[in-house]
Please model this.
Amino acid sequence: MTAAPDDVGSTLIAAERQMRGFRKARHARRTELVEDYVELISDLVADVGEARQTDIARRLGVAQPTVARMLGRLADDGLIVKRPYRGVRLTGAGERLAAESRRRHRIVEACLLKLGVGSETARLDAEGIEHHVSAETLAAFERFLAETPND
Model:
């Protein structure tokens, strides 16, 4: 007799729970690129006054045609405004998305640092985790940070 899903000793979880987990991960992967782009565009505009396609490509380590396609998608989604022969700028919706992504990144990174992860590893890991963390987990991270004494 084999163990039913979720029984003690079974490594298989219930199909519905597993499906929700995979669905959540796929959604996070789809939004990850969009969030990375709007966050980078926001940073470039704040630091150098504009976000040019060449700068975006260089910082993301991708080809300019890849950036051009994504910028078209971001424009279609109402997150950026493209200006011919000039840089792009974020719309209000793009700014809000960039700010939320940056906030999640900071919380995750601070939590990893508080756990003793090295600064460079925490920065790199937070870059991936920020896109996958749930609101519930993020709130728990914030409580952990607030309740844990500073060193």
Summary: Helices lie at 15-48, 53-60, 64-76, 92-114, 119-129, 135-147. The chain has one domain: 15-147. The longest strand covers residues 80-82. Strands lie at 80-82, 88-90.
